[in-house]
Design brief:
flat; Molecular chaperone TorD; single chain; mainly alpha
Length: 56
Amino acid sequence: MDEIDWATRATAWELAALSFRYPGPELEGAVASGEWAEAAREIAGALGLALPEGFG
């Protein structure tokens, strides 16, 4: 894997992590509905990564 791939992956996860920086009603709803976990799976799939077993 080259440097660009690692940079892209790091950026994607940093953006996902930002959703927890300022939690509010929108985040609460997304987590409760499973929408956040679904988005994390989509990010992982687009980057060719596997999430930990039992995630979401």
